[in-house]
Amino acid sequence: MPATKNEEPTLTHNGKTYNVSELPEAAQKQLMNVKIAESEIRRLQMQLAIAQTAHNAYQQALIEILPAE
């Protein structure tokens, strides 16, 4: 749904394009909810990547500390 500076934001669904400002208020609210959910998913994916990186680093540090067999 990218828009240039002079273009109104649009939504394309099933091959049909809608001007966001012309959608019913309920549809605009749901679109906003979709955007919020997508943003939260991206944030959580970044958090997961950080946690996985930390996990791998801790695991490697543990392996290096264990006595050799």
Folded structure, characterized:
- By secondary structure, this protein is mainly alpha-helical.
- It has one domain (10-65).
- It is 59% helix and 12% strand.
- It has 1 helix and 2 strands; from the N terminus they run E-E-H.
- The protein has a two-stranded antiparallel sheet.
- The longest helix is centred in the middle third of the chain and has 41 residues, at 25-65.
- The termini are far apart.
- The model has no long low-confidence stretch (mean pLDDT 93).
How does the overall form come out from the CA principal axes?
rod-shaped
The assigned structural class equals mainly alpha
Mean pLDDT: 93
Q: Which bin fits the share of residues in helices?
A: 55-70%
- Domain module tally: 1
* Termini Cα gap: 58 Å
Placed side by side, the strands forming the largest sheet appear as 1-2
Compute the gyration radius: what is it? 22 Å
Strand percentage lies at 5-15%
Query: Quick one: how many beta strands?
Result: 2
The poorly predicted ranges are: none
Number of DSSP helical runs = 1
Largest sheet geometry? 2 strands, antiparallel
Elements, N to C (H/E): EEH
